[in-house]
Amino acid sequence: MFAPEPPLDPSGDEGRRLLRDELLHREYHQQDLWQRLTDWLSRLFDRSVGAASGVSGVTVFVTLLIGALLLTGLLMLLSRIRRDGRQRVRPAAVLTDDRPPASELRRRAEAWLAQGRHEEAVVDGFRAIATRQIERGRIDDQPGATAHEVAARLAASYPEVGTRVGRSADLFDATMYGDRPATRDDATDVLGLDDTLAGAR
After folding, report:
1. What DSSP element (H or E) covers 71?
2. Can you tell me the distance from the alpha carbon of 11 to that of 32, in angstroms, rounded to the nearest whole number?
3. CA distance 66 to 164
4. What is d(CA 97, CA 90) in angstroms, rounded to the nearest whole number?
């Protein structure tokens, strides 16, 4: 097949046929998507640099500085969001260095329950359980221990109530994080577990 010589003045049908024939050539179909993307970005960058070549160096410097500051601010914001998310997920400690005796924690839990503040009753009730068992020598005193660490030690000492202890630890975590409001039944279950463990030998 011969290629027509310029100047070309094809009819509409002739022009479409020539274009179709041209686009069927192999070199148009050898590049993959990645290559096309990098070529496009390269052309875009070349055009940007070409457009900026008539601009003063100070303007280019200021533009680059503003871009760098915006990028730095965005990265700091993202790292803070990520760090805050990790801090919220970290389990709260049941046992702290400066905790009141078990009897005081139990009294507070009962007062919270009487006031209808079930979340506080669950939290102080579980802390009363842990503190009472430390006072009785059934578990080790480890300030900073999480609810599930305390529950694991209690379940080892009292296997017959292991499920109830685990559920109480779950309630403690759920109310500390605010994910789930506690009910009156939840609070009375935790205080009932304290009574059960207090009477156990």
Report:
1. helix 57-89
2. 33
3. 58
4. 18
**41-65 tens-digit pLDDT:** 788 777 766 666 666 667 767 777 8
CA-to-CA distance for 191 and 125, rounded, in angstroms? 6
CB atoms within 10 A of CB 113: 21
Q: Scan for tokens 């096309």, then name that residue.
A: 36
1: amino acid identity, one letter:
M
| Closest to 190 measured CA to CA, from 151, 160, 153 | 151
Q: Residues 141, 147, 148, 152: what is their CA dihedral angle, to the nearest 10 degrees?
A: 40
Mean pLDDT value of segment 167-191? 88
Distance CA 171, CA 119 (A): 9
- Residue whose entry in the numeric block shows the structure tokens 């970290």: 90
Structure tokens at 77: 């914001």
Q: What is the DSSP letter of 28?
A: G
Nearest to 158 by CA among 127, 191, 121, 129: 129
Percent of the chain with pLDDT over 90: 25
Dump the DSSP string for 118-184: HHHHHHHHHHHHHHHHHHTTSS---TT-BHHHHHHHHHHH-GGGHHHHHHHHHHHHHHHHTSSPPPH
Distances (CA, A) of 90 to 37, 148, 160, 185, 193: 42, 12, 29, 26, 25
